[in-house]
């Protein structure tokens, strides 16, 4: 939702308690927030007939309760029920509901680990890089890695590398991309590793480059891409601005330097989980 919402529905005297976590919900607004933020954990322990009774008896939403019960009876997946609640709440714009509908469709048939990966991917898409990295790290704990396919591990390491790179943590990003390539042998991970190594000073990445099975043709191709980025990429334009701002002879006024610095600070705060 991402906006301030005035609670207009009745507050329950007795909460709906989420099984396992014990989380208590008192309003329809809280229920929608929970469904949206924990979509990867939804199952029939959460969306069930007890929830239908709670909506009717505690919130006074009898019609929604009846409709939800029909959906739960006719569908094997719980996600149509979750989407129905969100639609009937009136809290979401049409485009938001469409996005949620597509997201929920993508969850069907996935394992819990695959569902949690989608959660990390959502953070990555929303440019919440620190939160994405934290989610991927939780998924890559030893007890979880043992239950994954090589392909899934590879995707997780690759996306963790992307999150680190977006936070300018290039040594960590390079290591993740290298590990991703070891798992999935995808050329995208190998090239991403090379990109990250380009930003690491000294020879920290030399030994890792040997393990990437690089040949002359690959190096030429990647170097060519670096040249394209250097001449056309917005990132390199920003780097040039930074270089000019640090140069006392650049001709940039102190006022404009302060504006540039304030803009960079603002953009960095936007990717912080605490902003």
UniProtKB/TrEMBL annotation:
Alphabetized SUPFAM superfamilies for the sequence: TPR-like
Highest taxon listed in the record's lineage: Bacteria
Record-given protein name: Tetratricopeptide repeat protein
Origin species: Candidatus Eubacterium avistercoris
């Amino acid at each position: 939702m991402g906006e301030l919402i005035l609670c207009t529905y009745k507050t329950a005297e007795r909460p709906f308690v989420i099984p396992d976590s014990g989380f208590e919900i008192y309003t329809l607004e809280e229920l929608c927030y929970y469904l949206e933020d924990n979509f990867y954990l939804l199952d029939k322990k959460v969306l069930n007939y007890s929830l239908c009774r709670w909506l009717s008896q505690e919130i006074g939403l009898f019609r929604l309760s009846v409709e939800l019960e029909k959906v739960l009876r006719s569908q094997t997946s719980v996600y149509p029920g979750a989407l129905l609640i969100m639609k009937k709440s009136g809290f979401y714009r049409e485009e938001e509901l469409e996005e949620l509908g597509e997201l929920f469709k993508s969850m069907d048939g996935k394992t819990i680990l695959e569902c949690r990966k989608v959660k990390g991917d959502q953070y990555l898409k929303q440019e919440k890089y620190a939160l994405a990295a934290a989610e991927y790290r939780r998924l890559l704990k030893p007890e979880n890695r043992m239950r994954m396919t090589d392909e899934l591990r590879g995707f997780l390491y690759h996306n963790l590398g992307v999150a680190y790179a977006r936070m300018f943590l290039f040594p960590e990003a390079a290591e993740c991309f290298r590990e991703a390539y070891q798992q999935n042998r995808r050329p995208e991970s190998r090239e991403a590793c090379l990109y990250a190594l380009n930003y690491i000073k000294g020879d920290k990445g030399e030994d890792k480059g040997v393990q990437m099975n690089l040949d002359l043709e690959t190096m030429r191709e990647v170097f060519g891409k670096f040249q394209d980025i250097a001449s056309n990429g917005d990132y390199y334009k920003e780097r040039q601005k930074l270089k000019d701002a640090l140069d006392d002879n650049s001709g940039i006024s102190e006022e404009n330097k302060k504006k540039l610095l304030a803009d960079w600070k603002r953009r960095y705060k936007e990717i912080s989980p605490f902003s």
